[in-house]
Write a structure and sequence with these properties.
Aldehyde Dehydrogenase, Chain A, domain 1; 7-stranded mixed sheet; binds NADPH dihydro-nicotinamide-adenine-dinucleotide phosphate; Aldehyde Dehydrogenase, Chain A, domain 2
Length: 471
């Protein structure tokens, strides 16, 4: 049985194999699938150090951060396996006065074969957000990992085949973007895409040709807002982790910070003090690693140079602190809101910090972005502030915690994408809703028949007024 298909092998073959697996996999009961998914989770957990090593070697993330990523991914896998039956299984719903003779029920059925296209920056957490939920919902999956992290994808496929030896319910196809493009046109029943907004647009265009539905988990430009009533130490700690961890290569990374003028100086001092202790390097003591994609360094440099040219000031790091693939922590202040460092996804260990007079101003700037993925707010009125901001998720008095809570969905708005992974929404994302009515006894009011009499027509007029005319 094939679990991993080498570059150049026909994507169509993989999808054909997946079709057979999908019928068998969908035919299992929810608890039978759950048992297998739980065994897969056990293997991943027991061999996590081996997997963390591959993540580290492929994309440069420090090993402890790779372990953290695996831990978070397993939480969601456990949730999907445990809750799929409850969320998706058939359940009765009420019928109405006019349809009282009908028993009504609803279930969420698997789509069939789901193609998953993943990025390299969180090569376990992000693809498993789609793969675990698609499998738990009863779909077969063909997964194309990023060419920068193929080994992680292959490892996952092999581990899955150990617990599901009968059919290739999860296959991994490696190769570059052209393999992803082929997968989009292969006749799969849905594409779960995680990656940049620019590639997401290409994926959508390709999928439009065959009306293949898509889930889009794309880029972000997340803000952290600190109000005068917020905890400055906690906000500084969150900003530094949110902007610098994984060398800033995080879709939900903090890239912009808006701080109330009353606490601005204190926040800036504390943030610089914390960030200056972090170094980018390849040594065991270095908290962040290299920028994974060579081309990204040029983008980061361009954003920093543009910010400085437009009047921004470097208070830590800056364009001169870039050496090869290593970008040292960088903090910019006084950066105009139309600079690239504020409007575009930088995807490096950098943040802009802006002073605001009111929370209205912070909200206005945050909402000005065409991205709307995540948000952090530190304030005694954090929920009220978050409620006025357009974003797929929001964390009050902490950073990114909504992404770690298995009951909550994750996804974006605007150019950050659409559709959801995680939670009940994440399961439904890989299904279609199936409505079923069963006639329990003949209707007292036969409506959908040419035998309908004029007496019933008059009764309908009366009923319409009685049921809806009072409003
Ligand atoms: P890319 O958009 O470059 O690539 C994503 C995936 O798409 C890769 O597997 C890539 O393959 C593949 N691909 C490339 N071209 C095509 C194509 N024409 N058709 C189909 N597939 C294609 O993103 P990155 O891998 O660089 O990931 C970083 C981006 O992902 C950032 O923008 C980040 O914000 C976003 N992201 C979003 C998340 C979210 O939850 N919203 C989570 C994590 C990341 P290959 O790499 O082999 O070229």
């Amino acid at each position: 049985m094939k679990t991993t298909i080498e570059r150049g092998t026909d994507v169509a073959d993989a999808v054909r194999t997946a079709r057979v697996a999908a019928t068998w996999w969908a035919g299992l009961a929810f608890d039978e699938r759950a048992q297998r998914l739980d065994r897969w989770r056990g293997i991943i957990a027991r061999r996590a150090p081996e997997l963390a090593e591959i993540i580290h070697l492929e994309m440069g993330k420090p090993r402890p951060d790779a372990m953290l990523e695996i831990a978070m991914a397993l939480e969601h896998l456990a949730w999907a396996s445990k809750n799929a039956g409850k969320v998706l299984g058939r359940r009765s719903v009420r019928s109405s006065l006019l349809t009282i003779n009908q028993a009504a029920s609803l279930e969420y059925r698997p789509l069939g074969v789901v193609g998953v296209i993943g990025p390299w920056n969180y090569p376990i957490f992000t693809p498993l957000g789609s793969i675990s939920f698609a499998l738990a919902a009863g779909n077969a999956v063909v997964y194309k990992p990023s060419e920068f992290a193929p080994g992680v994808g292959e490892w996952l496929g092999r581990a899955f085949a150990e617990v599901v030896p009968e059919h290739s319910a999860l296959q991994v196809i490696t190769g570059d973007g052209s393999v992803g493009a082929e997968l989009c046109r292969s006749g799969v029943d849905k594409i779960g895409f995680t990656g940049s907004t620019a590639t997401g647009k290409k994926v959508m265009a390709a999928c439009a040709e065959t009306l293949t539905p898509v889930l889009m988990e794309c880029g972000g430009k997340d803000a952290l807002i600190l109000d005068s009533t917020g905890n400055v130490d906690a906000a500084a700690d969150a900003a530094v982790w949110g902007a610098l961890s994984n060398s800033g290569q995080t879709c939900l990374g903090v890239e912009r910070v808006y701080v109330h003028e009353d606490v601005y100086d204190e926040f800036l001092d504390k943030t610089i003090a914390l960030a200056s202790k972090i170094r980018s390097g390849s040594g065991a003591q270095d908290k962040i690693g290299p920028i994974t994609m060579p081309s990204q360094v040029d983008i980061i440099r361009r954003h920093l140079t543009d910010a400085v040219a437009k009047g921004g000031r470097v208070v830590l790091g800056g364009p001169d602190a870039i050496s090869g693939q290593y970008v040292q922590p960088t903090i910019l202040v006084d950066v105009p809101e139309d600079s690239l460092a504020v409007t575009e996804e930088t995807f490096g260990p950098t943040m802009t910090i802006a002073k605001v007079r009111t929370m209205d101003e912070a909200i206005m700037h945050t909402n000005a972005s065409r991205y709307a993925l995540g948000l952090s707010v530190f304030s005694k009125s954090g929920v009220a502030i978050a409620d006025r901001i357009r974003s797929g998720g929001a964390s009050v008095n902490s950073y990114v915690m909504y992404a770690a809570i298995p009951n909550l969905p994750l996804g974006g708005v605007g150019e950050s994408g659409f559709g959801r992974v995680h939670g009940a929404d994440g399961l439904k994302e890989f299904t279609y809703a199936r409505a079923l009515s069963r006639q329990r006894f003949p209707s007292l009011l036969p409506l959908t028949t040419f035998r309908r009499t004029t007496r019933i027509d008059s009764l309908i007029r009366v009923l319409i007024r009685a049921l809806h005319g009072r409003h």
